[in-house]
Each structure stands twice: as structure tokens, then as C-alpha cells.
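Project outcomes to date are best conveyed with an example. Our students and postdoctoral researchers have been running inverse folding experiments weekly, and each run begins with a structure described purely in C-alpha cells. The record below, which covers 169 residues, was selected by the lab manager from last quarter's runs and is presented without edits.
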């Protein structure tokens, strides 16, 4: 939190967390990223990411839910005193989009991205990276997408490797 706060202060970049997400992919999640990469469907991959997320992040949680005919992947911070929550949420929403593009294909887009922060002065970086309608001042950090995506096969799935990764996780 201190490092992220210092980076924002030094760069005076209101969307530093968003830019940081450009260096993120499933590999950054270690074994749970590999587990997702070798799941049979996108829905199973996201459910396993949520189930084992505490192996990667003990200060927040990932949740996959279905509401109003949409799939919603959300993240919440569970530790108090975070000064850079806006940056963490920017990073996380963008990272969720990156992960979903890895699982669904590069042309995948969410129906909407929800960000629990005030609308920044410049939203162009958000539009470019998230590639979806944006809702600021939301109650949660999330991406909503069509239910059909949950049934899509993961192109990198390996049925032999998946059980071994599950056992390790």
C-alpha cells in the first residue's frame, strides 16, 4: 500500500493501478493461474480462481456470481486502512478483464465494468484497457458479462495436468 501510494504521488498519475495491470496475466497468479488455464470451461476456471484466491491474496477476495441474467466477477478488499483502494480496484478490474481475455479470447469484452471510485478526470485509459462501458461510484469492483461465456471451453485446457494442479492448490 505504501509503495503504491508513493508511486501515485511521484508520478501524479491518477490511474497508476490501471497502468500497472498491463503487466498482469494468469501467470502472475502462480498455481491458481495455471489451474485456471487448464480448466475445462471459463466458468470452472473462474470458480477455481475464486475458491483458491486466498493463496494469492490474503487481503481481498474474488467472487463469481450470477445476477439478472449476467455473470459477475467481483473483488473486495477485506483489510482496513488501505490508502490506495482506488488504485487496487482499478488494477483488479483491469486484471479481471485481462484474465477473461486470456480465457475467452482477445476479442472478449465485458458488458459493463464497475469501479467503486469517483470518476477520474481522464477516462480514456480506462476505456482503452477495459474496453467496456464504465460505471464509476459503484458499490463494488466488478466486471459483468454474458452467462454464455461461462460455458466456453478454455483453449489451453489440459485434462491430465488439471487434477495434478488441483491437488497442489
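After processing, the design step wrote out the following sequence:
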Amino acid at each position: 500500500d505504501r509503495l503504491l501510494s508513493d508511486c501515485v504521488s511521484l508520478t501524479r498519475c491518477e490511474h497508476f493501478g490501471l497502468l500497472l495491470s498491463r503487466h498482469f496475466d494468469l501467470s502472475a497468479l502462480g498455481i491458481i493461474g495455471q489451474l485456471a488455464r487448464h480448466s475445462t470451461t471459463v466458468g470452472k476456471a473462474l470458480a477455481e480462481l475464486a475458491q483458491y484466491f486466498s493463496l494469492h491474496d490474503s487481503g481481498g477476495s474474488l467472487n463469481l456470481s450470477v445476477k439478472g441474467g449476467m455473470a459477475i466477477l467481483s473483488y473486495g478488499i477485506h483489510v482496513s486502512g488501505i490508502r490506495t483502494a482506488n488504485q487496487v480496484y482499478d488494477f483488479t478490474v483491469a486484471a479481471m478483464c485481462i484474465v477473461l481475455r486470456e480465457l475467452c479470447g482477445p476479442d472478449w469484452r465485458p458488458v459493463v465494468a464497475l469501479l467503486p471510485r469517483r470518476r477520474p478526470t481522464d477516462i480514456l485509459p480506462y476505456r482503452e484497457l477495459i474496453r467496456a462501458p464504465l460505471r464509476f461510484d459503484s458499490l463494488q469492483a466488478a466486471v459483468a458479462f454474458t452467462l454464455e461465456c461461462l460455458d466456453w471451453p478454455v483453449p489451453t485446457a489440459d485434462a491430465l495436468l488439471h487434477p495434478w494442479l488441483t491437488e497442489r492448490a
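Residues 85-104 form the longest helix (20 residues). The beta strands are 60-67, 70-77, 112-114, 134-135, 141-146. The training component of this project remains on track.
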